[in-house]
Amino acid sequence: MLVHQLLAMTLQFGGISVERCWEQLSRVPDFGGIRRSEFDTLIAHLLADRYLFESGGLLSLGEQAEKVYGRKNFFELYAVFSSPTLYTVKTASGREIGSLEQDFVDRLVEGMTSFLLGGRAWTVQHVNHGDRTIRVGEAPRGIKPSWSAFTPQMLGFTVCQEMRRILVSEDAYPYLHPTVAKALREKREELGELLGRSARPVQVEAGKAFWWTFAGGRINYTLKYALEVIGGWKVVADNLLLRIEGDGVTHGAIDAVVDRIAGEAFWNDAGMWRAIVARLPEYRLSKFQRALPEAASVELVGGYMLDAGGTRGYLGERP
């Protein structure tokens, strides 16, 4: 939003000083957490990447900004939000099946999610955010793609814990549709006993483990990257579950790694957190993100995907 306002101000005034930009924007409550040093770093980056141009002490719109946001008389600059971004869906052989909107793509989990497209069911094998393609393989069943408004990828901790509580309880809900009631019974039979008997419910089978955290998306993604860095495993996360694969995946090994993550030393290890941040995907959460310095872009994605405080709290409540 700060990048958007800076570019819009240069377009509005034709030329404006850095000091005047800071004077006006620093009064905005939503920018209250941005220090002057961060602001100056952003200005220097925008100048270096030609999003801004400076002459005679005044900032104006740069060549790169005109190229990226100048189409249709700067429609892309005036509109804060972009039109839906489409991802092309391809088979392993490269055959195009169709396309999906990014809002739906953001909820896909590689190796786990299936969906329907072109009258067939497909399982996600790989999502490439760079060229906006999705590689898929055939699947026996799927879910209907969403073409409606944005649905958040990350469910919160409280919502997911309530889902867990319902599964371990025997509460009856007479208002449920018979199909939903049947699905709830089946899920209780599948997970109810496991969730009820263990604070760390993990299922292990043939080099693969399923940790049913019901902790929410941001906590689970924080755990995912920590498990990958420390354990060297491949981990797939969603809002309820961590699927862990690799050599040495046992109850004991997982407990040892999780106990290490729960320890104070882990949270104070700057090198460990650099390794975790380096694994963050290059998600594009805003069309102005490309104009940010790399560190700010990583911070933006990290703030969306990770929750260090919530993860510490979650692990601190469990043995």
Could you explain the architecture of this structure?
The protein has 319 residues and is an alpha+beta fold. It has 3 domains: 2-78, Winged helix-like DNA-binding domain superfamily/Winged helix DNA-binding domain (Arc Repressor Mutant, subunit A), CATH 1.10.10; 86-138, no CATH class; 157-316, no CATH class. Helices cover 45% and strands 18% of the residues. The protein has helices at residues 2-13, 18-25, 36-48, 63-69, 71-78, 102-105, 157-168, 178-197, 217-231, 251-262, 264-267, 270-278, 294-305, 308-316; strands at 52-55, 58-61, 86-91, 96-101, 114-117, 120-128, 133-138, 202-205, 208-212, 234-237, 241-245. The strands form 3 sheets. A 5-stranded mixed β-sheet has the order 4-3-7-6-5. It has a 4-stranded antiparallel β-sheet with strand order 8-9-11-10, with helices on one face. A two-stranded antiparallel sheet has the order 1-2. β8 (202-205) and β9 (208-212) form a beta hairpin. α9 (217-231) packs across α14 (308-316). It is globular.
